[in-house]
Design brief:
about 10% strand, about 45% helix, 3 domains, cellulose synthase (UDP-forming) activity, binds manganese (II) ion, transmembrane, 20 strands, golgi apparatus, binds uridine-5'-diphosphate-glucose
């Protein structure tokens, strides 16, 4: 990844009109390129600039009034767009004709089967349309970082105060300090602290739903290490700024300057020590708490103590009433503050003990006067009597605390396992938000999710490229991508439930103060909301925040009787807060933007273990169905949704239904066991040929999509495979949960995705070979066994009847077999999963499968003759 050659080159800065030091982005090849040059790259073979006229207009009227054009727009070239659209229409006609033909030729031996399959075909056609139509006019938006720099950075960016950039509050959520390793979370935080954004405009809020002291103390350690790490990153323009990833690649000699090599070694050493300290934290805390003098009182559970001798208000290592996960006080602690003059006192809103945000003797010369962004630890109060609303509840608590402490115009949230991979990413999002065209109406900017830990062939389709690079890019040409849970920058007021500028009746500032029933009873919060509505820069140091308000807004009871989670903030009552939150905002008439960068903006980890991955899919698809059966149903909700955007939301909420029909089809091979020939539809050969044509057309359209989205064949294929696996396991389970919920009103459980099941092993992909059986895997296994068995039976049958069968019968058998093989290919990743470690040599299957076919075939033949002898026909 990053080599010193790249780094030394990266350390070179260029002068642009403002005489600014512009960090260049280094890539693996050692060549450097500014992100803005990528605009030209975006153009290429399939894309063409779509905003020439707008640009010309701006130049003509010399509009350099601060309302700049901060991104470029690209649309698909006619040469690909027209065939693409034509093919979609042709397929639509073909599907309709096929359907009409099936109805007219309602000849089958099993009529219920025929009727179900016609219903299935109708559903396939309909859901294909829902998926396809919103892709009619994809648009790419490429941020113009140089323009942002020209308009917003007046003086050298290092001295943050001189910049006009808007404030950004960053939220990181974590829920478990074991399942979500503290080291990953700290890496995420370090990458945020080191991002290229003025320190006094940036604040990072870490929400810890486990209320663990380990996490707080880890933050204090991270803040100390940041005093070295941040200036190092800035001085040498390193990427990525998450140290674990950065140090993964050993530096090689070459052109690297001696200075760089020295700095590198020093920082690496300090990082190793930082990691050791992190690792020791649980022990340190346990020892500290174990000393007799610090016992809460005789006979009581052993309390957990902070370094400053105070008792930790969160969960204890030795959990007890009011000090356990799910039941503890709310905690807000400022670890780093960029307003040192402001006091944070009070019982739980105290300044962090360990780190101070001031210039340290450790600074690199180049970064004298270093300022770090604000860093705040938040653990909302947990009380078993209140629903804490999972991740959405945590995000809303962060939204409120940040409103009181920094109240930035924009907020961006990350899962604790995602880090900033491109230090320019926040600026890129800001470009899209501040642009004079639709900037003001843009509620959020979503980045694609990218993952580090996925196995090279992406066995379980974790990269989801078809979705991230195709579907989302296409939505960018409508009202915008949906909110995907992480790596998404919001305009704060859009989360507060207000209308976008073009739909507002009156100026926001002239609106009467909101009643407490909307934002809750904290007056400081309500005040901050009206301040935010102005979207003007706050130039003075904010006044000290009343500690009582801070405590109030993280209370478990705060949401009760307010609009939080309903029309304000992230939406509650659903397993997937993301889609529905985005839906509500789009429904108000806001738009969103999709931002892909040449160097991935953010990266994270994905579950590469099949069981874990399927649990995730159950949550997503279950959440989708929940949305369908709620008042946020895309057919009725969201007044200002554009038509195709609505279609796309409808698709996102009903797609799991498809699995019922897929499951039915996938079980068809059992028909080989039936003595007579069963035909879903007659004439069978014609039916299969028509079917093949419609399937082939899907892939032709897919091929054109791959062209414009840059998705590879393997990604496309993995997408197909995983849809099949999901359709025989996770999706039917989600449907089942939904049916249960409709009857019992109990929602789908948010099971935090485990990020380390096989930590500590040398094999980076060890998790891939771990597999825990769950009931949901049974149908998939059954389908696989049925298909393998069916091929064996088919072979046996062929042997027995070869001489008797007519040509038509032989054709039918061959076509049936083709279908079996297709299903087996689609289930191949599942077969590897159940092989466990044996899957390291998939070649085994080449021996195993034919052997099974032969055995089953032989058994069939043997049985046939045996039975024929016993019951002579
Ligand atoms: O009560 C909870 C539960 C979860 N989380 C956090 O939510 C995030 C996502 O949870 P995870 O288990 O990692 O879910 P994934 O399946 O990996 O997440 C995907 O799916 C989620 C929706 O289901 C989205 O919110 C995520 O952004 C998206 O990455 C993590 O940071 C958790 O710490 C909390 O803070 N509190
Ligand atoms: Mn995750």
């Amino acid at each position: 990844m990053t080599s010193p050659q790249a780094l030394s080159a990266g350390a070179v800065t260029v002068e642009d009109d403002g005489g600014l030091a512009v960090p260049l982005l280094a890539d693996g090849s050692g060549a450097t390129k500014t992100e803005e040059e990528c605009g030209a790259e975006a153009e290429g073979k399939y894309w063409v600039a779509a905003d020439e006229a707008e640009r010309q207009a701006v130049t003509d009227c010399g509009a350099e009034d601060g309302r700049a054009l901060l991104f470029r727009t690209y649309k698909l070239r006619g040469a690909i767009l027209h065939p693409y659209r034509a093919l979609i229409l042709v397929r639509l006609v073909a599907v309709l004709l096929f359907f009409v033909w099936r109805i007219r030729n309602s000849a089958s031996n099993v009529m219920w089967f025929w009727a179900t399959s016609v219903a299935g075909d109708a559903w396939f056609g309909f859901s294909w349309l829902l998926n396809q139509l919103p892709k009619f006019s994809p648009v790419k938006s490429v941020p113009d970082l140089a323009a942002l720099r020209r308009h917003y950075d007046l003086l050298p960016a290092d001295d943050g105060a001189a910049s006009k950039l808007p404030g950004v509050d960053v939220f990181v959520t974590t829920a478990d300090s074991v399942d979500e390793p503290v080291l990953y979370t700290m890496n995420s935080i370090l990458s945020i602290l080191a991002t290229d954004y003025p320190a006094d405009r940036l604040a990072c809020y870490v929400s810890d739903d486990s209320g663990a002291l380990v996490l707080y103390e880890a933050l204090v350690e991270a803040a100390k290490f940041a005093r070295l790490w941040v200036p190092f990153c800035r001085k040498h323009c390193v990427e990525p700024r998450a140290p674990e990833r950065y140090f993964e690649t050993e530096p090689q000699g070459g052109r690297a300057s001696q200075e760089f090599v020295n700095d590198y070694k020093r920082v690496q050493m300090e990082y190793d020590e930082f990691k050791v300290r992190l690792g020791n934290l649980p022990d340190t805390i346990r020892k500290r708490s174990g000393t007799g003098s610090m016992r809460a009182s005789e006979g009581d559970a052993q309390g957990t103590w902070m370094a400053d001798g105070m008792q930790w208000p969160g969960t204890w290592m030795d959990p007890t009433e009011k000090h356990r996960k799910g039941h503890h006080a709310g905690i807000v602690k400022v670890v780093l503050d960029h307003h040192p003059s402001r006091g944070h006192h009070g019982p739980r809103a105290g300044a962090g003990a360990g780190a101070e945000n001031k210039q340290s003797a450790d600074d690199f010369g180049a970064a004298a006067g270093l300022r770090l962004p604000m860093l705040v630890y938040v653990s909302r109060e947990k009380d078993p009597n209140y629903d804490h609303n999972k991740k959405a509840g945590a995000l809303n608590a962060q939204l409120r605390v940040s409103a009181l402490l920094s109240n930035a115009q924009f907020v961006i949230n990350f899962d604790c396992d995602h880090y900033v991979n491109n230090s320019q990413a926040l600026r890129a999002a800001v470009c899209l938000m501040l642009d004079q065209r639709e900037g003001g109406d843009t509620a959020f900017v979503q980045f694609p999710q990218r993952f580090d830990n996925v196995d090279p062939t992406d066995r379980y389709g974790n990269h989801n490229r078809v979705f991230f690079d195709g579907t989302m890019l296409a939505l960018n040409g409508l009202q915008g991508p949906s909110y995907l849970g992480t790596g998404c920058m919001f305009r704060r007021i859009a989360l507060y439930g207000v209308d976008p500028p073009h739909c507002r009746q009156q100026q926001l500032e002239s609106v009467a103060p909101e009643p407490a029933s909307k934002y809750g009873k904290s007056t400081a919060l309500i005040h901050s909301v009206s301040e935010a509505m102005g979207e003007r820069e706050r130039l003075t140091t904010p006044p000290p925040v009343p500690p009582l308000d801070v405590e109030m807004v993280v209370a478990a009871s705060y949401d009760g009787g307010t609009d939080w989670g309903k029309g304000v903030g992230y939406i509650y009552g659903i397993a997937t807060e993301d889609i529905v939150t985005g839906f509500r905002i789009h429904g108000k008439g806001w738009r969103s933007m999709y931002c892909t960068m040449r160097r991935d903006a953010f990266r994270g980890t994905a579950p590469i273990n099949l069981t874990e991955r399927l649990h995730q899919i159950v949550r997503w698809s279950g959440g989708s169905l929940e949305m369908f059966f709620s008042r946020n149903n895309p057919l009725v909700g969201g007044q200002r949704l554009k038509l195709l955007q609505r279609v796309s939301y409808l698709n996102m909420t009903v797609y799991p239904v498809t699995s019922l029909f897929i499951l039915l089809y996938a079980l068809c091979p059992v028909m080989w066991l039936v003595p007579e020939e069963v035909h879903i539809q007659r004439p069978f050969t014609r039916y299969v040929v028509y079917l093949l044509i419609t399937i082939l057309m899907i892939h032709m359209i897919g091929w054109l999509e791959m062209k414009w989205s840059g998705v590879a064949w393997l990604d496309h294929w993995r997408n197909e495979q995983f849809f099949m696996i999901g359709s025989t396991s996770a999706y039917p389970i989600a449907l089942w949960h939904m049916a249960k919920k409709l009857l019992t009103r109990k929602g789908i459980h948010f099971r935090v995705t485990s990020k380390q099941t096989t930590a500590g092993t040398d094999d980076k992909f060890a998790d891939l070979y771990e597999m825990r059986w769950t009931p949901m895997l049974v149908p998939t296994a059954f389908v696989l066994v049925a298909n393998v068995g069916a091929v064996g039976v088919a072979m046996g049958k062929a042997l027995v009847y070869m001489g008797v069968w007519t040509v038509a019968q032989k054709t039918h058998a061959a076509l049936g077999l083709l279908f079996n093989v297709w299903i087996m290919l689609l289930l191949y990743p599942f077969a590897l999963a159940i092989m466990g470690r044996w899957a390291k040599r998939p070649i085994i299957l080449l021996v195993l499968l034919p052997a099974v076919f032969a055995v089953v075939g032989t058994i069939y033949v043997a049985l046939h003759f045996l039975l024929a002898n016993v019951i002579p026909i």
